[in-house]
Design a protein that fits this description.
The chain has helices at about 15-20, 40-65, 110-120, 130-135, 155-170, 185-200, 230-240, and strands spanning about 70-75, 90-95, 125-130, 145, 145-155, 210-215, 220, 225-230, 260-264. With about 260 residues, the protein is of the alpha+beta class. It has 2 domains: about 5-65, no CATH class; about 105-205 and about 230-264, no CATH class. Strand 4 (about 145) and strand 5 (about 145-155) form a beta hairpin.
Amino acid sequence: MSRQSFEHRRPLLPEEDIETGADDKLSYGSGKPTSHMQPYGRRLMIVSALLIASILLNISQAWSAQGIGRFRVVTGIRPDESYSPAYDAVEYELRKFSRARWISPWHGPPSDGVDAAWESLYSFGINKIPKSQAAKMLNRTVALPGDEDNYVVALDVFHQLHCLNQVRKALHPDYYPPQEIVNGFDHIDHCVNSIRESLTCSADITPNTWIWNQEKQMAVPRLDNMHMCRNFDKIQEWARAREMTAPWNKTVHVEDDLEYTIIY
């Protein structure tokens, strides 16, 4: 580490004041200086503090070694710390969004074709990853019973697409059966809030623009702007290659030694 990186850690008082008991300059009350602490006494206090810190550190390490405290404490998250096993699949591309009146395979009234188009977006969304990748994630997941070297994940984009499809179906109650509410859990309400969280988390900051409409003689919004996007085809390929096709017994718990992450 460079010398400059420690500049902010230098003491506020001159070095000679530290050795000569300059703490009397910080006294309160009558204004009379307090008795000077001899250099030996100050050094003794410092050594004692370091000894106590060392003992506490050794105790915490002993707890971790015994499996009593398999926790990882995180006090501040940087973007590069939120690991995803799909990082290697990420490629960026410029993509032009569609116009307001453009009709896609996901548009239109309910039909088998529209249903198939939506389900093709996320139907392979539950995947398995090796333990080495699961250990890097901030969020803990479970191991597969009978295949303990692999762990279960589902990329959130596929969950959000599933939720958006459920909201779409709710718009056509005459065609699709109503969503069942079990134990007070409203699937559609959950999905609306989940999509809200995802949108505000990703927070696309691409500027939408206005253009002059000569016919209407007014400025109108333009939605077919260029966006910097992750290549969704590549992410789908990653998920398909790791799709969990074998049955998964969710009632079996597998003990492991991965850390629990506590985020403050």
